[in-house]
Design goal:
two-stranded antiparallel ribbon, Arc Repressor Mutant, subunit A, 4 strands
């Protein structure tokens, strides 16, 4: 597992954070999120929301791994309950 310091350095390397080191005792370092980091965080939050919604969706078609949202066999807990009621 990566340490916090390793993760911060990776984020800095990829332009997500800036690192400011102050010449003080004890040593002090400050990390600030960049515009790229903010935009990436917004996208990640949106993807997490979509993923949490997708966890509630079950596909019963043979092509489950590539099943699209338009698949007629794709069900949510609500549509599954409605289908059970129509039997």
């Amino acid at each position: 597992m990566k340490s916090l310091q390793e993760r911060l350095r990776d984020l800095e390397k990829h332009g997500m954070l800036t690192r400011t080191r102050y010449d003080e005792q004890p040593a002090r370092v400050e990390h600030t999120i960049t515009l790229l980091g903010q935009r990436t965080a917004e996208v990640m939050v949106a993807l997490k929301e979509i993923a949490s919604q997708m966890e509630k969706v079950t596909c019963i078609c043979p092509m489950e791994s590539s099943c699209s949202a338009m698949c007629p066999k794709r069900t949510t807990p609500e549509t599954a309950e409605r289908r059970r009621g129509h039997r």
